[in-house]
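Field notebook, page 222. I keep forgetting to write these up properly, so this time I am using the form the group agreed on. The chain and the ligand, adenosine-5'-diphosphate, are recorded exactly as supplied. Prediction of the bound pose follows.
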Amino acid sequence: MASNWVGELIYEGKAKRVYRVNDELLIMEFKDEVTAFDGARKERAPGKGRLAAAQTVFLMRLLSKYGIRNHLVDWDGDRKILVRGLRMIPIEVIVRNYAYGSFLKRMPLVKPMTRFSKPLVEFHLKSDELHDPLITTDDIIEAGLTRQEQLNEIMGIALRINEILSNYMVSRGLTLVDFKLEFGFDKSGNLVLADEMSGDTMRILINGRHLDKELFRRGASA
Ligand code: ADP
Ligand code: CDP
């Protein structure tokens, strides 16, 4: 489906192109490409952009129903979404329900897929060069990325999102292992959930099988 949205390309990342429509709005175009290892592995995957856009739209609309403020405005039914332009916080917020991925690399004492006693929330600096290093809340405050109250709010929203998504997944026979969120501020200084929510940014299992990008990370073809 085509849209009549028009914008000027301002950024091309690993997964999306970002176009500026006006002071308020951006278009995000999901690419038909799968990447892993900070972009070191990359393959064309026709249909993937639409799928990631559709998943993002579905999940952001679900979260809206629960009062989670997010950047989604509209969807063209294909690879593009219209979003509110935000001042992004350059942090990846990761919520984990089970031990997997980079958690196991830094904490090999825990067995893979152990369910945590409570969901873990962690922060990584967005930097491909540095491979998105794990950072502390003090690091974030000292670097002036957010204030403590805003960070507390981010943690609260991330845990609430985890509750909503975990319940939804369980009701569909799926297991939500972990996922990544990004946040930004709108012009009034409100914290807003941004970026995408898709198989690219979350690990979801069905009967122990992956419904996400993990297969590609392990070497399968797109
Ligand atoms: P990356 O930069 O990690 O390669 P993408 O290809 O997904 O990622 O590019 C999308 C970019 O848009 C990211 O830098 C992300 O932080 C940014 N972004 C996401 N949502 C918004 C928003 N609402 N306003 C401004 N920037 C956003
Ligand atoms: O993916 P990897 O094992 O390298 O890292 P992780 O820290 O275990 O990832 C936790 C979750 O965040 C997974 O669901 C990833 O898909 C997601 N993630 C992401 O979307 N973007 C990143 N740059 C890193 C992780």
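OBSERVATIONS:
- The helical segments are 48-65, 101-106, 137-142, 148-171, 214-217.
- The mean pLDDT is 95.
FOLLOW-UP: compare against the apo run.
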